[in-house]
Amino acid sequence: MPALALADWLRSLPDDRMAALLRARRDLATPPPSDSTVLATRAGTPGSIARACEQLDSATLATYEGLVVAGADTEPVTPERLAELLGDEPAPAGLFELALAWDDPDSGEIQIPPGARETFGPFPAGLGDSVPALAGTDLDGFDLGDDERALLRKLSAGPPIGRTRDAAADVPLELAETPVQKLLARGLLVRRDSSTVELPRELGLALRGGTIHREGELAEPELPVHPHGQSTVDEAGAGEAMELLRHAESLLRAWSDTPSPVLKSGGLGVREVKRLAREIDVDETRLALLAELVAGAGLVAASDEATPEWVPTTLTDSWLSSPPAIRWMTLAQAWLDLPRLPGLAGQRDEKDKVLAALSEELRRPNAPMLRKRVLATLSELPGGAGVKSIDELVAHLAWHAPRKGGRLRDEIARSAMSEGAALGMVALGAITSAASALLEDDPHTAASAMADAMPTPVDHVLVQADLTVVAPGPLEADLATEVNAVADVESAGHATVYRVTEASVRRALDTGRTADDLHELFRSRSATPVPQGLTYLIDDVARRHGRLRGGAAASFLRCDDEVLIAEVMAHSVAADHELRKIAPTVLVSPYPLAELLDALRGAGFTPAAEGPDGRILDLRPSGRRIPARNRPTQRTAHAPAPISEDQVSAVLAHIRAGDRAATTRRGATVRLPAGGGADTSATMALLAQATREQREVWIGFVDSHGTATQRIVTPVRVGGGILEGSDNERYPLHRITSAALVEA
Domain Helicase XPB/Ssl2 N-terminal spans what residues (predicted)? Predict the structure, then answer.
């Protein structure tokens, strides 16, 4: 039987090849098989074979399919017959490595497990069942019409069956009218039932020229590349990464101010996508990607309210204060492990319903594995080399793993290239150094590589006469904080333009900065002369700023200028906010201080907030935050954990020990009574004898998984319900079912 032949073949493999097999086919090692026979049985199951086939490239898979067509699951097939079917040199090496097939060391004949046939379905290679009587049939010897030949060619391309009413009854050739009736009458088609016909395998092969695949179908497709310098690729990627970080920051700040509602079905509504896209000046596809990234990184989550909203978490503040390379690494790692397809957002499902960003409809568990395959393929190219065409890359991936990823494989590959480019992990069709390091699970090197590729932060700005401030590159962190405090972004990009206005200067003064601080900022950090207009603006706002001060009473206003107090009391804002005078220079209100100051500013006054010590306070809200959620580790959610070397060694030792026990000659076997509780003196006497004489003993026992197995043990002690062996293994006596001395 083939299963026994596979067991013998596995038993003959050296340890290094067995270890490689266990690493490649993780499912074979769990739970540890008791011996090679159990391992062979497990390796021959259709489910295990199907999983292993996902690792095969097209040429190796075609070889396996050829073995199925040749019937190698029932009798050995010669390499010559296999080459004849393939029309090319077979590639069985990958099959041997995965124990999907095995060969006879003397004849070279190849066999496969019976379960392999189920892996390829009822029509392997698109060919029908065999009709041996048709072997060697020459179709040129038949007087076939064009319509009959066309039908045969169509069925030969696969699948080999067709449904037709013409198969209802046998019709003599002289009475046949349709192509199906004529071919049935000639015996060139086989009736499966009253409405189905099938083209026999022998005729299908003859119509294909004797091979199961057309010429050229098995050749590995070329992957043309453009040569680039690695530094060029890294710099281009870093530029995209900086832009992505800017947009992600804008989205987080927008959600801090105005969280978006969560749809009843989950996700982010179309209107909110459009609003946010306009607000941060990106298209809707990029907005969906940004939303998925910040949510995947745990920076945003749905609040636990009656009406939930998408709100930044407490991780957002630390992320915003981190260096750019660290912020990039957080988003890039989240993308690598994201079991979702952001690119599907905005598309419609089979019910014509729009797929919403952040919804469950975008979940694709295979996405991380396929995404990493794309990057791994790019990393195998020479440094800096970029693919010329995504279509060619998709074809390359499909050839190397045609059964891996299913129908989403090509879509995920295309998405990985576009999303990777947006993240700065791919640039000019090549992988960046930072992405390569992240792919190798080296975040420290990844962050360093991205930091090196990013533009060096500049320590100066260019102040212009129209009160705009130009940042000629990314600003140093402290300078960026100061400029953002006193100016508003007017246009962003590689060179950011800020504008200084009365409101922005007042905002800076509200945070406790003085006019002298602002003058010193522009004097020391501007590479161009500071225009007088900016100096006058700062001085004018500072002169008026803080003359009127507020506190909490719920709130109060105080001012040394009684005339200004009178102006406030004469304004409608006094009545609206129930201001009353408690002293010539002090007013109080039951309204919150922040609300009162906003109303006064809207009325044209310029108040400032103060604390109990009289110092100016910054009352601007920092935005909503909710507790960060514990994100599940997603690397193991979509792929089994790799088996460790220690596990491989332990499983291999377990198998070898079982093989030795199964093939060892032994004397009379002493069996323990079923159910326990009976006299076990004979067994104990045998084990005691083996201990005294230091002889090997064969034991049969049931392991902790409930599996019956056998071992060869040299006992060193029997007692306390335990048999201890010289290999430091301990065998509970109640699990031992039989024992026998090993004969020399």
Answer: 461-583
